[in-house]
Structures are given as structure tokens and as C-alpha cells.
Amino acid sequence: MSAVAITYALPMFRAEHIGWLALESLCNQEGIDFTWELIVVEEKQQCLGLDGVYAYESRLRSVGCERIIYVGLGEWVPLSQKWITAVHTANSDGFLLAGCDDYAHPGRIAETKKIFDAGAEWVQSPLGFFYDINAQAIGVYDHSLNDVHHHCALDKAVRTDLLKRSLPLTATQSRNVDNWVYTQVSDYLSRVPDIHMNRSDTWKRGIFTDGLNNIQSARRSMYGSNVVVPFRNPRSDESQTLNQILPDYICSRLKEARPAAQERVEFVP
After folding, report:
1. Max Cα separation, the chain?
2. CA 220 to CA 133: how far, in whole Å?
3. What's the CATH superfamily of 4-262?
4. pLDDT tens-digit profile of 160-192?
């Protein structure tokens, strides 16, 4: 298997009503003149499934996706184990950590590669829109409002070889998986990784969602009617509605997903 520039790693769980969102965003990526791979790791419970993922194959290939690797799991595993599985399956230069309930902005892959090419070990973005599917509320995550000791932001990516060397084979049960990855990389290097922030305005054309995920169920209460740092309300120069951020057909499908979000039963392993 030949190496590609980027691995887009996409763990899924109970993604039957929302996994399409991430895949649609990948089909709408821009500025790609290199090859990349998609690795999906998913349990069979209420899954999008192999057929659901491969339904996007031709569209993904049109934006440079050379291969799709689907890893089906018979039983639930922690998110950290899914990252470990994807990392040791990857054959690439850069590894993008993504969520199946998020719509990646159209520059996510190409801009990350460009930053890696400039020498970064770790790439992330300081800003991002969040959307509560049920309440239809929009907020902005702003890393500048965060505690100075909070290292991780959004749209994280790490050099693949660095992750292969630093991540253990044993998963953590902690839900703060981002910081776990950061700690593993820092411990391996005996220093903090070289972090580059992607400060492109392209983030304004993507969104992270709440209501159909199983990782940050409390996060939706941090924006909307009650804003809690590191979230804030959109500023006057930022979009105020979902239709100003995303393509119309994506907005329509998210609205169709509201009943599933309203009926959601949170998963507690």
C-alpha cells in the first residue's frame, strides 16, 4: 500500500443519522492536488455501515481520496482505541482527527497539508462554529478565551509517524481523549509538540454539531442561551444562521435530523 499525503481518520458510533454529515463535507473539500485516505472505525450498533460509507466512494475519489479503509468492530471500544486502530492502519504523512458529526470546512485537508509541509508537528484551529441540532443554537468556540494551560483546540492533526511512535497500544477510558493524545505525544518527545494554528477564515464554512454525538453531551449547554467560556456568541462579522455557514442541502438534512436528536438516549459505557 503506497503512502499518501493525509489520513482523514473518522471514528463513528451510533452514526446512522449523522455520519453522512462528515462524508458530505469531505466530498466538498477544495484545493486538493494530492492523494489522501479515509479510515472509518465503527461499531455495528446503529451504524452508518460499510455500504453507507462506500456510497460516497466515487465522490470522494473525485477530490483525491485514493482509498477508503473501513474497520468494523463487533463491540463498543473507547474512542482512544479507535484512534489507536486508525493510526496503526494509516500509511500517510499527516493524520487528521475528525468527528463523524461535524461538517469539516472545505479547506480542512488542503490547508492542513500545507501547514505540515511548512514543518509543523501538530496542527489545529483556534475558532469554530458549533450547532445544537435540537435547540438550533449556534455558538463560536474561541481558543483565545481558554485557560492558558489548555493546549488543544479544534481540527487537530498530527504527523502520522509521530503518532505511531507515541500512542500506546492500550486505550484510555478517559473522555478527554484530545488531551490524552497531546500528553502521549509530549511525553514521547520530552517536550511540547511544535503546534501551528490554522488561522485561515475558511473555518467560517464548517460546523461542529451537538445532539447526536456521545462524547460531549454537556457541551451543548455552553452556548446558545447561556454562553460559557471558551464559547461566545457570533460577532457581527460572523454568520448568525446555519444557512449562512453551510450549503442549503446540508441545512435541510440537519433539520430533518432533529427528531433523532430529540429522542437521543445518551450512551454511558
Report:
1. 50
2. 9
3. Spore Coat Polysaccharide Biosynthesis Protein SpsA; Chain A (3.90.550.10)
4. 999 999 999 888 887 789 999 999 999 999 999
Does residue 194 sit in helix, strand or coil?
A: coil
* Domain residue extents for the chain: 4-262
Write the burial class of residue 241 (CB in 10 Å: 0-12 exposed, 13-18 middle, 19+ buried).
exposed
Contact 157/117 with Cβ under 8 angstroms? no
Instruction: Tell me how far CA of residue 198 lies from CA of 54, 118, 125, in angstroms.
Output: 30, 12, 5
Preceding omega of 230 cis (within 30 degrees of 0): yes
Q: Helix count (H) and strand count (E) of the chain?
A: 9, 12
**Rounded Cα gap, residues 78 and 172, in angstroms:** 7
b/e 75-106 (16+ beta carbons within 10 angstroms → b): eebbbbbbbbbbbeebebbbbbbbbbbbbbbb
Cα-based distances in Å from 244 to 165, 198, 240, 247: 42, 22, 7, 8
**Weakly modelled stretches of the chain, pLDDT under 50:** 265-269
Chain center to CA of 76 = 19
Gap between the Cα atoms of 26 and 17, Å rounded: 17
pLDDT tens-digit profile of 144-164?
998 767 889 999 999 999 999
E strands in the chain? 4-12, 36-43, 65-73, 92-97, 102-103, 122-125, 127-132, 137-142, 154-159, 195-197, 207-210, 231-232
